[in-house]
């Protein structure tokens, strides 16, 4: 093959290969721009938790216990599961697409079918005082925090999706470095460590992160020099980046963790003029989504509520 022909073919091949690569970011940017960055939730809903799957987000109402499902590409939504009369706080989806719901002051949890909205099972963890606040699915079980008790509740998720009986959970007391402080909100958000060998929880009223051994409950402080996670609420782990929602401060701290989750460095903070006391965070379609709980706004049946999308760090 002569040099000129090689050159022509090389230019043609380069142009053919480069064109789609150059076009892809522009197409992605147009797609992101076309999607809503703020979606409306039902008036009076009082959102707290969020979980996402594909284009859909699920929100729980701390006022009524209803579950709202929203399409994040259009902003439209519908009621998935009706009011229960008890709160729906932290949410998580298991590997079979079932929604695990933290029951707050009811001291319980529910498992909801995301196709039908049917409540598949209920578990009563504790009597008052109790505040079952958040949940994560980790190593074949769901772990729930209780903001009024120094414990985790472990709910095993059996093979083939079999749910345990009503008394089929265990209570894991926290020991080690952890200390319950007063009657305010203590334990709150919960996630797995990057290596998935342990759990990380945030204590809201002290602004402290703990690494917890799930089998024993032994807790050690996560060393994050120079930072206190005041009003720490929902957590989200993305690779080795931990997002910590600081609700009344209207910001999200981004923390780079080591694989074991024993140390971390704050790499930045996310803020938005659309934040109005966000509580929890989930990732969907390349963005972070947070419901605005509006704790500082007196709730009424007509109070508007929203969820906000921001870029990750």
Work out the number of β strands.
Answer: 25
Biggest pleated-sheet summary = 5 strands, mixed
CATH class: Mainly Beta
Please state the structural category.
mainly beta
Question: Which term fits the overall shape?
Answer: globular
Q: C-alpha Rg, in Å?
A: 22 Å
Unreliable spans? 1-28
What portion of the residues fall into strands of 2 or more residues? 35-45%
Number of domains: 1
Write up this protein.
The structure is a single chain. Residues 1-28 have low confidence and may be disordered. The protein contains 1 helix and 25 strands. The protein has 313 residues and is mostly beta strands. The protein is globular. The chain has one helix at residues 3-34, and strands at residues 38-41, 47-53, 56-61, 67-71, 77-81, 91-93, 98-102, 108-113, 119-124, 132-138, 141-146, 151-156, 170-173, 175-176, 187-192, 199-203, 208-212, 218-221, 232-238, 241-246, 251-257, 264-270, 282-284, 287-291, 305-310. The chain is 10% helix and 42% strand. It has a single domain (47-310), classed as YVTN repeat-like/Quinoprotein amine dehydrogenase (Methylamine Dehydrogenase, Chain H, 7 Propeller).
SSE topology:
Elements: H1 3-34, E1 38-41, E2 47-53, E3 56-61, E4 67-71, E5 77-81, E6 91-93, E7 98-102, E8 108-113, E9 119-124, E10 132-138, E11 141-146, E12 151-156, E13 170-173, E14 175-176, E15 187-192, E16 199-203, E17 208-212, E18 218-221, E19 232-238, E20 241-246, E21 251-257, E22 264-270, E23 282-284, E24 287-291, E25 305-310
Parallel strand pairs: 14-18
Antiparallel strand pairs: 1-25, 2-3, 3-4, 4-5, 6-7, 7-8, 8-9, 10-11, 11-12, 12-13, 15-16, 16-17, 17-18, 19-20, 20-21, 21-22, 23-24, 24-25
Organism: Micromonospora rosaria
Protein name: Superoxide dismutase
Keywords: Signal
